[in-house]
Amino acid sequence: MLRAAATSPKGVLTILAFLAAILCSVPSMAAAPYVLGVSDKLTVKVVQWKAAETEFTEWTALGGDYVVGADGMVNFPMVGPLPAAGETSADVSAALAAALKQTLGLPAAPIVSIEIAEYGPIYVSGDVSTPGEYPFAPGLTVVKAIALAGGERRGAEAGARPEREMLTTTGNLDVSEDEYARLLIRRARLDAEIAGNTDIEIPPELKGHAETPELVEAERAILNARTRQAEAQASSLSDEVALLKSQIEAFEQKRKNTEAQLQTAREQLDKITTLSDNGLALASRVASLQTNVADLEARLLDTETATLQAQQDIAAAERERAQLNDQRITDLNLERQTVDGQIGALELKIDTQRGLVQEAALYTGAAVPGDSAPTYSYTIIRGEDEVAADLSTAVQAGDVVVAHLQLAN
C-alpha cells in the first residue's frame, strides 16, 4: 500500500513523478531503444491507481524477475506467455498492461514498469585468448567482445623474445625462399638446355623479383659453358669423322693405283711365264714378277682393310656422337627431375615456415615483414543466422562472436 504517500496532493505528484521515471527506463538520448533478447532478465512492477481511495496498490503477485526464454517469450501469471525477444521493454510493458486489463476486466489498464535487471550473455569463441561466456552491455561491439575474451590469440610468452623469434623464423624463411628462387632459375636453365635454346626464359613467379637478373646471369653462364662443352665434343667427333672420310678417299685412290699396278704386273707375269715355258726367259725373271704380284696383292688387301677400319671408325664416331647427345639429354632430364623434387620439397618447407613466421607473430606480438601477416575475420551467429562482421559491428545479447585466424598463403 502506498496510502501514506497518497494522502496529499503533493504526495500524489511525487509518486506520479517516481512512476514516470520508472517508465522512462530507456534514456531519451539513445539513438535506438534496446531490443530485448533471449536470456535477458527483467524486473517487473505492476501498480494500480485507485482514485476513489486516492492510493496506489502494487500487485506483488505479478512483480518480480522474469527471464526471456529460448523461444523469445516471457511467461506472466494470469496472462500467460507474451513475446519479448525483438521487442523493447516499453513494448512489453504496454502489452502486459493491455493483457491484464483484458484478462481481469479492469476499467483501466494498470501501470506496468519493466527494467532490465541483467542482460543475456554473449559468447566469444574461435581464435581468442580466453573463449567463453561474457556479460552483455549496451553499445557492445565486436572489438569490445574480443577485448572481453582477452584479445586475439597470443602466446603465453608474448613479448618475451619477439626480436629473436622473428629473426629466427623470418631468417629461415628468407633462406628457403632464396633457395627456391635459385631452383626455379636452375630448372629454367635445364629446360633451355634440353630444348637446345641459347637463353633462359624467366619463370613467371620470379618476374619483377629484385634478385632475378643476378640469378639468371649466373645460370646463363653455366648454360653457355655447358653448351660450349657439348659443341666442342660434337665438333671433335665431327672432325674425326671428316678425317676418317679423307683417309677413306686416300685409300680409295691408293686402291685404284694398286689395282692398276697389279693388273700390269699380272699381264707381265703371264707373258714371262709363257716365254719361260718356251725356254725364252729365265726362271728368276718369273719368280721376280710373281713376288711383285704377291706384294701388290698384299698392298691392295691392306688398303681395303684400312678402308674398312676407317669406315668402322666413322660408324663408331657417329655412334659416340649420338650417345653423347642422348646421354646429355638423359642427364639433363635426371637433373631436372631432381630439381623438381627439391622444388616440391622446398614449397612444402616454405609453406611450413610461413606458418611458423605467422605463428611467431601471433605468439610474440612482433610485426610480420612483407605481406605475410596473419589477419582475422569475424562472424556473429545470431539464432540460426550467421552474419559476417567487422570490429565495429554491434553485438546483441545472446550473440556468438567467432574470431577466425586467416594465415597468409
TrEMBL record:
InterPro entries: HH_AprE-like, Poly_export, Poly_export_N, Soluble_ligand-bd. Residues 227-327 form a coiled coil. Keywords: Coiled coil, Signal. Residues 1-30 form the signal peptide. Residues 172-353 form the AprE-like long alpha-helical hairpin domain. It holds the Pfam family HH_AprE. Residues 31-116 form the Polysaccharide export protein N-terminal domain. Residues 122-157 form the Soluble ligand binding domain. GO terms for molecular function: polysaccharide transmembrane transporter activity. It comes from the Bacteria. This is Polysaccharide biosynthesis/export family protein.
